[in-house]
Amino acid sequence: MTTDFKSIPIIDVGPLVAKGDDLKMGQDPDVREVVKQLDQACRETGFFYVKGHGVPESLINEVKDVTHKFFDLPYDEKLKIKMTPASGYRGYQKIKENITKGVPDLQEAIDYYREVKRGMYGSLGEILEGCNQWPQDPTNFKASMEEYVRLCTDLSGKIMRGIALALGGSADEFEGEKGGDPFWVMRLIGYPGKSPTNTQNNDIGCGIHTDYGLLTLINQDDDITALEVKNLSGEWIPATPIPGTFVCNIGDMLKIWSNGLYEATLHRVINNSPKYRVCVAYFYEPNFDTLVEPLEMCVEKSGGTRLKERAVYGKHLVNKVKSNFVM
């Protein structure tokens, strides 16, 4: 349950990263301390900063740099990788083509998904079948992003092992049929700077929402505060950038699996800076076709009352994709 938090905690996951390949990591006192902090953050805020993550800062900065360079291109160049239903909903969307709860967002973006081969998930995955679209310019764009996805996938899996221990399960609780073959989504987002003639704080870069999956790693420009997280009293708490860290938050699927012990917290983006802002959001997800429902151990820990929510992750994602774009 989200609380009246006033700030977002910082967690050094270094011990978890170092021991993350060992299923007996929970016996290590440094790992146990990280697990304790993860449990508190997931219960109280649903958001936390991650440091000690092992992803090179040079790569963190490089993916933001090439994203800026892409969005700086002429519009006709960006349209060469335009997102369409035929592209498996992968590619570029211009400003106000993305919709949150029926309202166009003041952002442009490129969407990438784990590639889905024909028939891979049957009819469930048909609309996402296809290959990702990569721009020719910048020339290092594709290589940088693929390495970044690889490292974020590895890091997220280790954080999820810590969260599994925090919930009282084995380190590999969210693997196998649940998340042993994880889906992923990456969204590169550009938020235009605020116009000097606009004196209102009402340009919503991304409307109020929760994330769809398990875990999100947010890599945002260091010099602009735009991401805001809603606490229990309805206050918007800024997720001020801390260089070298990710902002991490939990999503809808983890809320269900934890039987509501961990909350997917509402958040939004408002860029009141005159500067253009970039955010690289990586989403770590369950197996595409897995059924997500409350874990028995979490039902017991929450007093025996079971959430009525359950979802096939891929169906949940596809329903969101179908309603998120002006086509």
TrEMBL record:
Residues 182-286 form the Fe2OG dioxygenase domain. It comes from Herrania umbratica. The keyword DNA repair does not apply. Keywords: Cytoplasm, Dioxygenase, Iron, Metal-binding, Oxidoreductase. Belongs to the iron/ascorbate-dependent oxidoreductase family. Coiled coil: none annotated. Its main location: cytoplasm. GO terms for molecular function: 2-oxoglutarate-dependent dioxygenase activity; metal ion binding. This is Probable 2-oxoglutarate-dependent dioxygenase At3g50210. It is found in: Cytoplasm, Cytosol. It catalyses: L-homoarginine + 2-oxoglutarate + O2 = 6-hydroxy-L-homoarginine + succinate + CO2. The gene is LOC110429481. One of its GO terms (cellular component) is cytosol. It comes from the Eukaryota.
